[in-house]
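Late entry, erythose-4-phosphate complex.
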Amino acid sequence: MKFFVDSADVHEIADLAATGLVDGVTTNPSLVAKTGRPFFEVLEEICRLVSGPVSAEVTATDVAGMLREASRLLEVAPNVCIKLPLTPAGLQACRALADRGAKVNVTLCFSPAQAILAAKAGAAFVSPFVGRLDDVGHDGMRLISDILQIYRNYPNFRTEVLVASIRHPLHVVEAARLGAHVATMPPAVLRQLVRHPLTDKGLEAFLADWAKTGQRIG
Ligand code: E4P
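Prediction complete; structure with ligand written out below:
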């Protein structure tokens, strides 16, 4: 399973990339706005920090505008992945970009029907938003399970399921249990994955016992 960081904060991304656990990055207009920095500057820096795909979202809503913005974004670095919304225009632009060999992440997916369309449009990734579905009383993980089941029926679908809008470690664990290809998560969730109180307690005890021996390694 691949881990992407869902952030446009270059300090957070650099910090996490150093762990060797980060396979890519997803950004969106809200995350970029939060940085208060120029988009292209941020995108260039992120693309230098990670070698895997970095999703950069267009803001145009018509096909011609999406393709124009995508061309500009693709000039930034070879690992830019164009993020397009799951709209009729987004799907049309996805097909055009995929035919040119560009990687596309179709975002804002909330139903299995939409995910089928993203695969048919040649998306490299589809991003179902589990947290936002949970927020409105739907079962976000059920959507992941449905999409994976459908995609398995069609080996010619190459689209990877990128679980997005992750809120806590259990979303990541459940996504992995279902066999999702990628989980994109806020930096805080990635850091939470490692923590366990029994690990801390166990290490503390080992180190205390070791100190009593008066020995040193190295
Ligand atoms: C995914 O690519 C999105 O940027 C992100 O996961 C959205 O998450 P949110 O629902 O927490 O805003």
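The pocket of erythose-4-phosphate is lined by residues 6, 26, 28, 107, 127, 129, 131-132, 164-165, 184 (CB under 6 Å). Will revisit in the morning.
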